[in-house]
Amino acid sequence: MAELQEVQITEEKPLLPGQTPEMAKTHSVETPYGSVTFTVYGTPKPKRPAILTYHDVGLNYKSCFQPLFQFGDMQEIIQNFVRVHVDAPGMEEGAPVFPLGYQYPSLDQLADMIPCILQYLNFSTIIGVGVGAGAYILSRYALTGLTSSIPEMILGHLFSQEELSGNSELIQKYRNIITHAPNLENIELYWNSYNNRRDLNLERGGAVTLKCPVMLVVGDQAPHEDAVVECNSKLDPTQTSFLKMADSGGQPQLTQPGKLTEAFKYFLQGMGYMASSCMTRLSRSRTASLTSAASIDGNRSRSRTLSQSSESGTLPSGPPGHTMEVSC
């Protein structure tokens, strides 16, 4: 998918007192149904979707949405979200007339162009704002988007928005693996099963909870960080170890294998295994600070919080029976 043009323009609108001009970038990308042009205002905000607009027939993004996004009270919103304004093919300012006999894309095909835009921008989620035909296009995308952009949806599940925006070698590697997977149809079936999963209905102290030792690990920028924290709150604190790893994103086993290995060794030791195993980088450091708090939910179990640098630190050993929140 190749970029055809990229220019910087200043939005043409009267400025409010104290307001500076917004810079915009206009892009055109090729899709299976032809080229599509869109204009991006602002920069991506961590853990926030982009606002994506699609205009009605007879309009373009400026004539359809400029009055709304110029409105004074709207400024608070646009300061907190990156905006992507899509122009339907041939509707952008200065667009040439299509040749005689040109077959214009159907509305369904226009909807299928949206994943190409999101893939180009490394965006995984959007808030759609559509008018008339644009509303239909966005609705069609919402109904079929999972199938059309399955690789990007899965990447958004695996990695944080910050990681995707950074487009590191790791992201490029896994995007290539998933996008070109020969069994992509099978992956989609697995993905659909995941999205149709039932709630575990865990409840601390209730009839449904895990009775075995558990180690929960989540990256500090993981896309499902809140869900893991909530899960930890529903588990028996005397059987649960909770580790929150810094600089690890959505896949700690890929980005921080050393730290995760060390934490796993301590977890196994707490279960009575590998008592003589040699601890490496984490255990040799003496820079960590360990604080112990009192009871949790009336139990005598202690909650341990460990803070350490991204390079070194010490994890507490001992039997599972402590909830550990670790930043490492």
Automatic annotation (TrEMBL):
Which residues lie within the region annotated Disordered? 1-27, 291-328
InterPro entries, per database record: AB_hydrolase_fold (IPR029058), NDRG (IPR004142)
Q: What domain of life does the UniProt record list for this protein's source?
A: Eukaryota
- Which family, according to UniProt? Belongs to the NDRG family.
PANTHER family associated with the record? N-MYC DOWNSTREAM REGULATED
The molecule here is called: NDRG family member 2
Report the source organism: Suricata suricatta (Meerkat)
User: Which gene is this protein's source?
Assistant: NDRG2
